[in-house]
Design a protein that fits this description.
The protein has 4 domains: 155 residues, Phosphorylase Kinase, domain 1; 196 residues, Orthogonal Bundle (Transferase(Phosphotransferase), domain 1), CATH 1.10.510.10; 36 residues, no CATH class; 50 residues, no CATH class. The relative contact order is 0.11. It has 490 residues and is an alpha+beta fold. Helix 4 runs antiparallel to helix 6 and helix 6 packs antiparallel against helix 8. A 6-stranded antiparallel beta sheet has the order 3-7-8-6-5-4. The longest helix has 23 residues. A hairpin with a 2-residue loop joins strand 5 and strand 6. The protein is 27% helix and 17% strand. The protein is built from 11 helices and 16 strands. Keywords: ATP-binding, Kinase, Nucleotide-binding, Serine/threonine-protein kinase, Transferase. It comes from Gossypium hirsutum (Upland cotton).
């Protein structure tokens, strides 16, 4: 969000479920703000200055409830149990809509610039948990109300694995409530602070950066400029994959999708079974015709100065107007922070940070020997091309994510399969399910027994055994690490 870092979750929030009374449900909390953000207006919202009491007993609301539900299952989440729970609740509802009375609040999760977020579930289905974002419109200025409308509109447009699903929008009295996904594994900023040196290994940086890149590509294809990219707004789903959050600072622009077929030289030499035999390389490189789909809002333009001060692009700081390039600048800052644990232009104060961003001084990389691992040169080159202060020469501003995907830092990534990659193992990462340990133990005992059997038959070193073991273990690898070498996922 613009003024307050909002979180939809806390790690381990489901460990102890304390339910509130079913009747006369009053929740009072005091707002908190973060020091990392840049105010979008001179006056703070009254929501950030005083406590707010919310009553979710619909009989106590001043007017009738108006519900706008989005109950069509998204294709990529068609079999999600949350959709089954929503469908069952709407079938039992008298008017076919979700109302506040159908929800049972569990606890308060976080407070943002526009509203508060609660963990909840449907009263008749405790297994399907959601995040309920509650916005009190009476406490917001007209500008903030336009942000609320923008976020609700954008959420209703999204259909992507790395973006939230809007299950229902409920207008009750002076409250706007958005029922969206709950992410139980916290946000990426909290996870980053748990790492040694506050930095991720390069393989983890590639994983998170690639998924964020795909999410930004989808948003830009819809003509949506995000303008609030930072680790605090990247949540982690139950499976360890990312989910972007907070869309109140977005703005929409026109976009014209184009599809071209480009002829490029293949990087690897091909062998031809008809010219020179199957084992003889063909002289020269082989041309490949590859389709290139580009949907980038290159004509987007805005003068609003909003966002997080450490992630603001130079053209946004100057107030001269900005477009799609602010997201690609923020993406470069994001990759830098994952690698080094800090942002590249951070100063002793917000003013110094903004001055560093606007100055012509070239960005520098810290001398950290522990970060100098293989392929770090490609990561630095990517960051330098993204953090070009002239947006006309910045990587991604012309063709969007297509140009960034082709950078050597992302070599080897199979983009259509990215949602099926296994998340990297990092400190404080996704908690394993209890059944997983037993599965690993059973697999170990299987291999021990197979080894004993092979030793007994003196065929342990035979080719069939090696092929059998490599084929079975292939299911436990993912092709997502440097040099395209698979890494075992224990």
């Amino acid at each position: 969000m613009a003024d307050v870092g909002e979180t939809l979750n806390f790690q381990g929030v489901m460990e102890e479920e304390t339910y509130f009374p079913d009747t006369d449900l009053d929740l009072s909390f005091t707002s908190t703000t973060t020091d990392r953000t840049f105010p979008s207006s001179s006056a703070r919202s009254s929501l950030a200055r005083s406590s707010l009491t919310l009553s979710f007993n619909e009989s106590r609301l001043s007017c009738s409830t108006i519900t706008v539900n989005n109950i069509t299952p998204l294709y990529h989440r068609k079999w999600d149990p949350r959709w089954s729970a929503i469908k069952a609740a709407t079938n039992l509802s008298s008017d076919g809509n979700i109302h506040l009375r159908h929800l049972k609040l569990i606890r308060h999760l976080g407070t943002g610039n526009l509203g508060r977020v609660f963990l909840c579930h449907l009263r008749d289905c405790e297994n399907a948990t959601f995040a309920l974002k509650v916005i009190d419109r009476e406490t917001l200025s007209s500008k903030k109300l336009s942000h609320v409308q923008m976020e609700a509109e954008i959420l209703s447009m999204l259909d992507h694995p790395f973006l939230p699903t809007l299950y229902a929008r409920i207008e009750a009295s002076h409250y706007t409530c958005l029922l969206i996904d709950f992410c139980p594994n916290g946000d990426l900023h909290s996870l980053l602070r748990k790492q040694p040196g506050n930095r991720f290994p390069l393989a983890a940086v590639r994983f998170f950066a690639a998924e964020v890149l795909v999410a930004l590509e989808y948003l830009h294809a819809l003509g949506i400029i995000y303008r609030d990219l930072k680790p605090e707004n990247i949540l982690l789903r139950e499976d360890g994959h990312i989910m972007l959050s907070d869309f109140d600072l977005c703005f929409k622009a026109d976009v014209v999708p184009t599809c071209k077929f480009l002829r490029r030289k293949s990087r690897n030499s091909k062998r031809n079974c008809f010219n020179g035999g199957c084992f003889a390389p063909v002289a020269g490189s082989v041309d490949e015709v590859l389709p290139e789909f580009v949907a980038e809002p290159v004509t987007a333009f805005s003068r609003s100065c909003v966002g997080t001060h450490e992630y603001l692009a130079p053209e946004l700081v100057s107030g001269s107007g900005h477009g799609n390039g602010v997201d690609w600048w923020a993406f470069g800052v994001f990759v830098y922070e994952l690698l080094y644990g800090t942002t590249p232009f951070k100063g002793g104060s917000k003013e110094n940070t903004l001055r560093n961003i606007a100055s012509s001084r070239k960005m520098r990389f810290p001398d950290a020997a522990e970060v100098e691992e293989a392929r770090i040169a490609e990561a630095k080159d990517l960051i330098e091309k993204l953090l070009v202060k002239d947006p006309r020469r910045r990587l991604g501003c012309t063709k969007g994510a297509q140009d960034i995907k082709q950078h050597p830092f992302f070599d080897g990534i199979k983009w259509p399969l990215i949602r099926h990659y296994k998340p990297p193992e990092v400190v404080g990462g996704v908690a394993r399910k209890r059944g997983h340990v037993g599965h690993v133990k059973r697999r170990r005992w299987f291999w021990k027994g197979l080894d004993c059997l092979m030793i007994r038959n003196r065929t342990k070193g035979s080719l069939p055994y090696r092929l059998l073991r490599s084929n079975i273990n292939a299911n436990n690898y993912y092709d997502y690490v440097q040099n395209n070498k698979p890494r075992k996922n224990a």
